[in-house]
Structure formats: structure tokens, C-alpha cells
What we know:
single chain; alpha/beta; Arc Repressor Mutant, subunit A; D-Maltodextrin-Binding Protein, domain 2; 5-stranded mixed beta sheet; transcription; WH-like_DNA-bd_sf; DNA binding; transcription regulation; Transcriptional regulator LysR
Amino acid sequence: MAVFSRFLRYFVAVARYGSIRRASDELRIAASAIDRQILHGEQTIGTPLFERLPSGLRLTAAGELLLAAANRWSRDMENLTVQIDDMKGLRQGKVDLLIPEALTKGFVPSLLGRLRTTHPGIVVNVSVRDNRDIADLLIGGEADLALVLDPPHRRELVVRGHRAFPLGFIARPDHPIAARAEARFSLCAEFPMVVPAAPLALRRQLELLEIETQVRLRPAASADNIQMIKSLVMEGVGIGILSRLDAFEEIAQGLLAFVPIANSRISPLTLALCIDRARQLSAAAQLILQEIEKTALAKDDAV
Length: 303
């Protein structure tokens, strides 16, 4: 449905490509016509929307605001269309879901597989993003739902459900610590460690524990990628510290053992299902939200 005015359609295209010529090629509209619409819009609003640079066009602060609003209007119209279809009894829709890389394995693919059987008319578009950016992207209208690790406190962000995952040591199943029910952080001083490196948020938490306990890690290697940490541990380089969520699949397959850390002050990793307070969810998005709540946030072995 063409809900945008001609000006807004042209404006969004120019903003996306940073060039009137490239927007012209994409829309198959004369560049002069696009330029006239942009100039007319700027005159009507009373402020420039683009900086004219030798390398192309760059959004001004006013242009950034207009682009964010245009994206929200577009998504709201899509949601309205889905809701109208729902009223007509059409069991279909489109849902955009944001997740961090840690969830690319486990319950999300399984959930989508089940939904494909039970609700084949619902299309779920999954976007994997840096966890630090997900809250802003959700609030900015980039998705209907988001799964966020340790979500920030934001007025616009509503947490519909959450689940805590303890931090612990990961080791090969044949390692001496593998049979323990739990262990103190001081275990770090006894064995070589595969240490999380910045920008992983876990790195800062371990530094605080080192200060609190006066225990120093014995690094055999470090990595700024969760998968690399697990791979190094499985190769026998050392033991590591991750959340249970980070290594859930390897633990379930018996490739790694997980030993919770017993220190009372260590904070677990929180997985939260979030929505934008201002967004009205479609029936399809409500269905996915309920399935995630039931699948990921209620059962101990779900994720």
C-alpha cells in the first residue's frame, strides 16, 4: 500500500542511498523530479534535510528525525494492514525479531521450525545484531520484538518476561572440575584460563571479581568472541567462564561441562523479551511473543 506521499518516498530513498542519482535509479524516477520534491519539502518544513557535500548528500539533524518518523509510519501501516487481515480471518502476518548472536542456536531456530508447521502464513524475519544496539533499534522501530541480554533501563522499553542464566566455569567433560556441583571463583588461580576480552561485557565482571576476591586469573589465552572461547576450551587450552546460555548447546551435547560459580555477588546473565512501549503489536507479533514466553522464559531446558 502506497501510504507515503511522493515527497516522503523520494526523501527515504535519497536518505538510504545518500545520492539523488542512485535514488533515481532505484525508483525509476527522473533525478530532477526527485530534487524538486526534496527542495519543496525543505521549504515547507523550513529547514534543510540534507547537507550537500561533494561526495553526496548527508542527513542533517532534522533529516534524521524525519527519517526515524518515516520508518515508524511505515511499520505502523504494516502492522495496521496485518491487524485488518487478522480481522478478516487471514491467519498470516510478518514479525520482525531482533536477537543477539548468542541466540542463533537453540530455541529460536526450533521455535521458528514449529511455527512453520502450525502457522505457515506467519513470516518471522530474524535480525542478528550486536546486543548493545538492540534496545535502540527496537525503540527506533526496526522490529516488533527483541530478545536482549541484560537490557538497559529505558522508559520506552517494556520487559515482557525474563530469565536468569548463571555464570560458571566451562571445561572439557574429562577435566578435573567437570564433576563438581559448583565452585568458588578462586578456582581461577588453580587452572589455566581462557579469558574473555573486551568488548565482551563479561570481561568487566571478571575484573570486579578479581578485585573483590584478590584472586588473579591464570590466562592461557584470551578471546573477544564467545565461540572462540568455547573452541579453545574444547581444545584443552584451559577452562573458561561463560553464562550457561553461552554454552547451552555444547553442554546439552556433552561437549562441555558447566560448573556454576558459587560467589553470591556474581550477577547472572538476564535474557529479556522486550517490546517498544509505544508500539501496538499485531496479532502475529502477539502470537510470537506468547510462544517465546512459553518456550524460552518458562522452562529450565527450553533454550
